[in-house]
Amino acid sequence: MVDSREVVHIQCYIQMLAQKILKNLMKKGRGLAVPLAGFAVTVLVALFYVYQPSWLKNLDLRLYDTVLRHGHTARPGDRVVIVDLDEQSLHSLGQWPWPRYRMALLLKKLQQAGVQAVGMDILFAEPDRTSPAVLRRELKNDLAVDVEFTGLPEALRDNDRIFAATLADGPFVLGFFFDFEKKAAQAESVYVKDLNPASLARDQDVALPDLLFSAPSLLQPLENLAAAADASGFINTIRDQDGVLRSTPVLMAYEGRIYANLGLSVLWVALGKPPCIVKYSAAGTESLRLGKVTVPLDAQARVWLHYRGPARTFPYYSAADILADRVPAAELAGRIVLIGTTAVGLHDLRTTPFDSEFPGVEAHATLIDTILAGDYIRAPVWLPGLEFCLSIGAGVVTTLLLCTLGARFILPVILLFALLCSFSSFWVFSRYHFFFSPLFPILSTVLNFSLLSFLKFLRSDKDKRFLRKAFGKYVSGPVVDRIVAAPERLSLEGEEREVSILFSDIRGFTSISEQLAPARLSALLKSYLTPMTRIIIMESGTLDKFIGDAVMAFWNAPVEIEHHRQRAVSAGLGMLAALPALNERFRDDYGLTLEIGIGIHAGRVSVGNMGSEDLFDYTVIGDNVNLASRLEGLTKFYGLPLIVSDALAEVFVAGYSIQEIDLVKVKGREEPVTLYTFREDKTLADGELAGWARALAWYRSCAFVEALHELELLQRAQPRFQPYDLYRERCQACLVSAPPPDWDCIFRHASK
Description:
Elements (H helix, E strand, L loop, with lengths): L3 H21 L8 H19 L2 H18 L8 E5 L2 H7 L6 H14 L3 E4 L11 H12 L15 H9 L4 E8 L18 E4 L15 E3 L3 H6 L2 E4 L12 E3 L1 E4 L2 E4 L1 H9 L5 E6 L2 E7 L2 E4 L5 E3 L11 E3 H5 L12 E5 L8 E2 L7 E2 H14 L9 H22 L2 H26 L6 H33 L5 H9 L9 E12 L2 H7 L2 H21 L3 E6 L2 E6 L8 H27 L5 E16 L4 E6 L1 H16 L3 E4 L10 E10 L7 E8 L7 H13 L3 H14 L4 H15 L10 E2 L4
C-alpha cells in the first residue's frame, strides 16, 4: 500500500499548485508587481522632467535642433546685411588688426551708402599700434631714435582719434565683452554706454539686475572710442551645456547697471533710440519693449534664436569690396549692417543647430532679424505643465493597458503615440513657433512598455516553468504545452464539465501486500505505477490520484481534450497491453504476477479544487465518477480486465472490437447502464460476436432454450470468457424458475 504520508504530500503539492495558479494566472491585472513597477517608472520620469539630468537635457536639446532644422519655414528679411573681414580682405589689405583709419574709412563708406545703423562685432580694447604717434614713442623707447613726421597734420598722427571722430559722426555701435571665466581686474571707470531701460515690475521688492546674468568683469573699448560711439553692446553669447548656441541674453548686469546685447543695441539705434521698457516679476523677466516692438524674454532675459538656416544665409559683403567701392550703394541703403569676421584664425565661429561653424556675427544678425520679423520661438508658461502632465498620463495609460492587454497589442499603440507626439512637435513649431518636447511623454511610454513587458515576460516565463514542473507529472507534454500557451483556459474553480474517468485496481492486492516486506512492496508499486502513469499521460490524461494500489485519472480537464473518450479507452487498453511484459519481470523479481481491472465511464461531473480552505485537491466528483468506480469493481464479477459504459459504445479502436456485456443497475444508482468491453480482433473466434448478439437477443426475449444453445457453442469456442458462463447459468436458472411477466432483463448488483 502507498504510505499515507505520500498521499498528504501529493495533496499539499496540488494545493500549492492550485493556489499559485489561481493567484498568478487566472486573474488578469490582479498582481501588484506590474502596476507598482509602472507607477515607479512614471514617478521616475516625472523626476527626470523636474530635475533633467544632463544626458536627458542634451537629448531634449538635440530633439529641439531636429525640429528647428526640419520644422522651420523662416527666411531672412532684407534689412540686415553683414560686412565680412574675410580672407579676401585680409589678403588684399593686410593682416588683422587693421589700422583704425582704415576702419574709419570703412564706416564712412557705409555711412555714405545710407545705412541705418552699423554694429561692430569687434573689440577695440587697445590703442592702434600703427598710429604715427605710437610708432614715434615706441622707437624712442626701444631704440632711442626720435622720429619726426614732418608735414603730417596733427589730426592724422593718432589713428584712434581719427576712428573716434568717425564714430561720433554716425549711427555706430561698438562691441564690448563680459568675462565670466576669470575675475579680471575691474576697470577704474566704465566707458561703455548702458541701456538704462525703464522697468515695469510686478514685484517692487525685486530689482531687475538681480534677475539677469551678472558679469564679474568686462573688456571694453578705449575710453575715447566708447564715448564717441552712438551706443555699446556686449558681444557675448552663452551656449547650452552641449556647446550649441540656441539662445542669447539680450540684457546683462554689471555693477548694478544694465547693458544690452550688440544686436539689440544696433536695432535700438536703427529704430531711432525709442524708449525701452522691461517687464518683469519675481519669477524673472517677461518682455522688453522698444517703442512699438515687443520682444518676449525668458526668465533670464534670453531670446531663442530663430535661425534662418546654416551659415551665410544672410547677405555677406567683403570689406575689401566696400573699401574699393565695388558694392553699389543701393544694396546697402536703409540696411542694418553688422561688421564681423569669418576669416580662419580669428576664431569667431559658433556651433548652432544648423551648422558646426557658424559666424558669431551672423548670430547677432539672426537676433535682429527675428525681432524685426516678430517670429519668435516662444515658451508659453503653461507648456512645461502640459509636458509634465502628458508624461504622467502616458505612463499611467501604458501601465493600465499592459495590465489588461498583451504586449503585442500595445506595441502598435506605443508606436502610434510616439509618431503622434513627434508629428505634433513639428506641426506646433511650424505653426505656432514654440517647441513642444515629445521626449518625456515618449520616454515615459517606452520605459513603461519596456520594463513592464520585461517583468511580464519574466513572470510569464516563471509561470510557464512552474506549470511545466507542476503539471508535467500529471498530464502529457502536449497538454502541458496547451496549458502553458493559454493559461487563461485553465480553470481550477468548481465547474461542470463532461469528462472521461478511468479507475484501475490490482486484484488481490491485500494478499500481495501480506507476502512482501514494505520496502519490496513499495518497489513493486513503483515499478507498476510508473509505466501505467506514463501511458495515461501519453494519452493526454490527467492523473488524479493514487488510492493505495488504485489509479484514478480523467480526460478533458483542466483543459479540453479532443476525442477524450477514445483517449481514455486507448489508455485502458494500453495499460492492459503493457501488463504481460511487466508480469514477466515481476515473476522473476517477486515470484508473482498482477491482474488488474479497469473501469471507464464518461459524463458530466464537477471538476475543480475540492476540499477545505486549508487543504484541497484538484479532482472530479459526482455520480458519474462513482459509476466509473463501480465499473472497475464489476470487472472482477464478470472476469474481465476492462469494462466501459454505454457512454463509450461509439468509440473505435483499431484492432479491437467492442462487445456488449450486460444491462445492469449498480448499487446506489437507479438508472440502468449497458456494460461493454473491448476485445482484440485476433482473439475472437469466427462468428463469435454474431453468435453473442443472437444469444443476447434470445435471452432478452425469454427464449432461454435457444439462448442456452448459442451460449454453449460460444463457451466451447471461448471457454475462458466468463460472461458466457454467467449467461448460461442465468438461462438455466430461468428455465427452472421463469422470470415474472414484467421482467426488464436488467441485472441488479447488490454490492459495490
